[in-house]
Amino acid sequence: MRARRFISLLALCAVGICVSAVAYVQVRNQDIEDNRFALFSESGAARSTGDAERGENVARASGCISCHTDKANGGALLAGGVKLESPFGTFVSPNITSDKESGIGLWTVDMLAKALLNGRRPDGKHYWPAFPYAAYAVMQQQDIIDLFVWLQSTDPVQGASPEHALLLPGFARAGLSFWKTLFVPVDYQSGRFSERGEYLVEGPAHCAECHARRNLLGGIPDRRLSGNRRGPEGAAVPAITADALREWTIEDLMFFLEIGMTPEGDFTGGHMAAVIDQGTAHLSSADRQAMALYLKSSFNGGTE
Amino acid sequence: MFKHYRLRSVMLGLGVMLVVSQPTAHTGASGIVKERMDAMGVLGDHARVVGDMLKGKTAFDADAVETAAAAFVMHGEQITGLFPDTEESRSGARTEALPAIWSEWDDFVAIATRFTEDSRVFANIASKLDSGEQSDEENSRAVRTAFFRTSKGCSGCHERFRLKQD
């Protein structure tokens, strides 16, 4: 009798500890998110209105179009439907056109900012990290305002994407609070990405999402661009640290980001081809140069 | 002088073929798979030559551009024939061809056709480079535009129809 009571007490304690741990992580993550959003809002210097043309440039740099446009199947611009295979199942990119029902036509700029910086949906739930907010967390205020204006200027397209086909149970989504505290860098709104190339590569262009190693939780423990043996398309993704790129010149990299040609004359395929065709090919030559300079710099990669 | 350049291009072309026919990256491939890998290799070498000029790594060479453009046209015309729907073609050793080529054959042909058309435009521009009507800078810009357009065929096809690789 006494033993049974003791066990019940122990079980109760265990449950209590779990509940408080979960509560603690949630509060802690909420703090980080609130703080990041506050820093972002206060960062100021933004013009009151956005500029659609600049916003399109942000979208190109950020890979929005290559993931949210199902080009191979003739899908409309930003109407979603692109599949991303992962060890956790298949993610399908949503419709982000200006359509009020299927897209994001009813969003405010703050909703967009919270989605990009904190991985939060307007209903308060977490986005799965297939949406690369661990990189977007660095994005600057003006860029997000411009991006918002451009997104709202695109043609509305009706029709929601199919649901994700995940191997994870539904409640795993709540566990993303914990995931975020582990894998979304906290100091991303501190302005440490002042150099343009570094900002583009580590932030909007989110190179690490494919070119860095992921752990069992699908997190990127260090965002070093040292390659990923198990890439999202079932093949290895090459390392692009300065060391790995030592045979490439700045011109080689700029050329690659413009037309996808390697120094040997081969042309990249797969999703990288889309990233270039829908993205980096449209950037200014100065931006491609900034990315190339950063990739070749000692800041990219350090020691192997 | 003109002839001398021609000769150099031919020598370069021969050298390139010699190099790519070495069993390096294509070891283990045979038959149609080897045939198309070699063809792609030759094409890549021409692309590299043009690319190096545009990057300023090598001097502008109108004849080499002309040779490259001609190779693109020839390849464009032959490419669909290099992918017959046979067992060997689909699953021969070392093949990097994805099954989508045959399940989405019309799209594959459309990319090849577009590539051939763009290559002809490129070849046409390349044939006028020696006329002396334009400055080197204008020539370089024209080549850049035409080459970039043509190259969309390479990346567009690899995006959907080539095995993902390191």
Radius of gyration over C-alpha positions of chain B, nearest whole angstrom: 17 Å
Total DSSP E strands of chain B: 0
Largest sheet descriptor of chain B: none
Order of helices and strands of chain B: HHHHHHH
Mean pLDDT of chain A: 91
What does this structure look like?
The complex is a heterodimer of chains A (304) and B (166). With 304 residues, chain A is mostly helical. Chain A has twelve helices and three strands; from the N terminus they run αααββαααβαααααα. The termini of chain A are far apart. Chain B has 166 residues and is an all-alpha fold. Helices cover 71% and strands 0% of the residues of chain B. Chain B is built from seven helices and no strands.
Topology diagram in text:
The complex is a heterodimer of chains A (304) and B (166).
Chain A: H1 2-42, H2 52-62, H3 64-68, E1 83-86, E2 89-92, H4 109-118, H5 133-136, H6 141-153, E3 165-166, H7 176-183, H8 196-202, H9 208-211, H10 250-259, H11 270-278, H12 285-296
Antiparallel strand pairs in A: 1-2, 2-3
Helix pairs in contact in A: 1-7, 2-6, 4-6, 8-12, 10-12
Chain B: H1 2-20, H2 31-54, H3 62-78, H4 87-91, H5 100-103, H6 105-127, H7 136-161
Helix pairs in contact in B: 1-2, 2-3, 3-6, 6-7
